[in-house]
Specification:
By secondary structure, the chain is α+β, with helices and mostly antiparallel strands. It folds into two domains: 2-227, Rossmann fold; 238-342, OB fold (Dihydrolipoamide Acetyltransferase, E2P). It contains eight helices and 20 strands. The protein has helices spanning 42-50, 96-101, 109-122, 138-151, 168-185, 196-202, 220-225, 230-236; strands at residues 2-13, 16-27, 31-35, 57-62, 65-68, 81-84, 156-160, 189-193, 205-210, 213-218, 240-248, 251-254, 257-260, 272-275, 280-284, 290-297, 302-308, 315-320, 329-334, 340-342. A hairpin with a 6-residue loop joins strand 17 (302-308) and strand 18 (315-320). The radius of gyration is 25 Å and the shape is elongated. It starts with a strand and ends with a strand.
Amino acid sequence: MTQLTINNLACDYNDQSVISELSLALDKNEILALLGPSGCGKTTLLRSIAGLQAVSAGEIYLGDKLVSSSKVMLPSEHRNVGMIFQDYALFPHLTVEKNIAFGLGKLSKQEQQQRISSMLSLVKLTDFAQRYPHQLSGGQQQRVAIARALAYQPDLMLLDEPFSNIDSQSRGEIMIEIRQILKQQQVPAVFVTHSKDEAFAFADKLAIFNQGKIEQIGTAQTLYQNPASPYVANFMGKANYIKINGVNGERVMTRLGDIVIDDKTMREHHCTVMLRPEQLKLSHQQGGDFKVEHCFFSGSHWVYRVRDEKDTALALEVHSNEEFVVGQSLDVGVEEHALVTFNMAG
């Protein structure tokens, strides 16, 4: 079942287009990350879904109910949408228990207490019920925020960079915990971030934003291995671009040698091949065409920047488990993999 549907959405701010021609769908129990640089429109989209931002054109549906269009704007309090903010937005003068109880006024006292107890157990904070926010760690405060948002059983959860204020050592564990809670409660979520690492860890699918439009939607693996554009390729990680000098049957000819074409749909007008650092391999070669320009150890592998002596414009980043030294001559080859090609200058 589709929980959120957006059709051809447009949003303007001060007569400037912020979002245009944007469409997406979110299934029940699915987590979608909106990923992109600052000012690309992802937070505007989140606010539009929440009912905090008017739309200029298009439609937003929650389930089968129209909640936003150029003529309709259902108030946020009637959308049954939970929100978690970057700063948690907890009430400092209320205990954990009373923060979670906020918004449950329509329930009986007994129902409120049952719901609060259930939420405290869910986020593993039963022993912290009487503490105040300043007595909690950042991760614990975020768990209170998720408990409060889930307490009134929302149909959709919206998260606006919720992990940016949590220290790096705790962030990964908190992301896993909150993801598991959302899955356990079967609450779909839309998650805004500028960090691809957070998106990889937390979301089922990623939507890559570029100047108010979605460039590509898919799983992290799909977007990394088969990006639809150089913009997506670069956003998802380091990429090297090599000019294709020609096509010979099932091979493309490049400065790194001939590479087998796995994608039979590639056309000759695709003049550039994209290669991730881990898709390149280095080999010791006295008098080789490349020299190591810079290197450092990243913990799991070595990262090398190598430059072609014959073509000083060709500089590559390569990952390897072998150790080379700056100035060393070597050759660069290509591991077998499905090629990604673009129609762009090499």
